[in-house]
Specification:
Length: 278
């Protein structure tokens, strides 16, 4: 039985995929409330203390980045086992919201910024990615690769066909990213059938320069690592950026067909993915 067949055979209540390891680092789905709390605490430190996001009164009271979606989401964790195997070792996280989970809330998180109606017509399972962050001492290739391996295993497990979400550029002035937004629009715009569009009242034009004046190589290098990662997997962007004043960012919608993710990571990590499912 192949790894994909084993994933398909797992009972529906099984959300996780075991744990994938790279040395003392591991990646898996949170299984306890204390682990979810550790992810929310990490998000608080990075988004609010480090990046200067503006907390609600409720978030400030508990010093956690938390909202209604956390209760229905799966929380992907990177754990440093040199610190500990549980919440004390959480050094990276990604929030994963499946379609059935979003239906419990009545919408996806990205609906606050984008018209996702084209995705409603997509024939396949959807997964929204968000709230990605990594502790400062762990920001590098190893942890990002481990997060992607975890996402690939999760996609295998749940047979996800399309993933999407909002990726952020750190500034509320879109002209700070004029070359990057222009480049993304002219080189990576999603096809109409998969193209989210910024809500009319929040829509910020991405075409901010003459595309012939954009240095593509330099612009690609300047993009945040997360966006570069999506593009390497064949990802697309939606039409229009959105200013997120709470988080001090300019957001773009990202759409990725997951066959590209699973092909890439299944080839490289077939044995570890298989072992995680045994």
């Amino acid at each position: 039985m192949t790894a994909i067949q084993k994933l398909a055979a797992l009972p529906p209540e099984t959300r996780g995929f075991g744990e994938l390891r790279a040395g003392h680092l591991g990646v898996r789905i949170a299984t306890t409330e204390s682990e979810v709390d550790a992810a929310q605490a990490l998000r608080w430190r990075i988004f609010y203390e480090e990046m200067g996001a503006q907390p609600s009164a409720a978030a400030l009271a508990v010093r956690r980045d938390v909202d209604a979606f956390d209760a229905v989401a799966d929380h992907l964790l990177v754990i440093d086992h040199a610190i500990g195997p549980g919440p004390e070792g959480v050094v990276g996280t990604y929030r994963l919201i499946q379609q059935d989970a979003a239906e419990q809330i009545g919408r996806f998180y990205s609906d606050e910024e984008y018209d996702l109606s084209p995705l409603d017509l997509f024939h396949g399972k959807l997964l929204e990615l968000g709230r990605s962050c990594v502790a400062a001492d762990y920001r590098g290739r190893a942890v990002m690769q481990l997060l992607w391996r975890g996402i690939a295993a999760y996609i295998f497990r749940h047979q996800i066909d399309l993933m999407f979400g909002c990726a952020s550029l750190p500034s509320t002035n879109p002209d700070d990213w004029a070359a990057e937004l222009t480049y993304l629009y002219y080189n990576h715009l999603a096809p109409p059938a998969l193209r989210p569009r910024a809500l009319p009242e929040r829509h910020i034009e991405m075409r901010r320069m003459d595309p012939d004046e954009v240095d593509a190589k330099r612009t690609q290098s300047n993009l945040p690592p997360l966006i570069k990662g999506y593009l390497r997997l064949g990802g697309f962007v939606g039409d229009g950026a959105v200013i997120d004043h709470q988080f001090n960012t300019t957001d773009v919608a990202i759409v990725v067909k997951t066959d590209l993710v699973t092909d890439k990571y299944y080839r490289h990590y077939e044995r570890q993915l298989r072992d995680a499912l045994d």
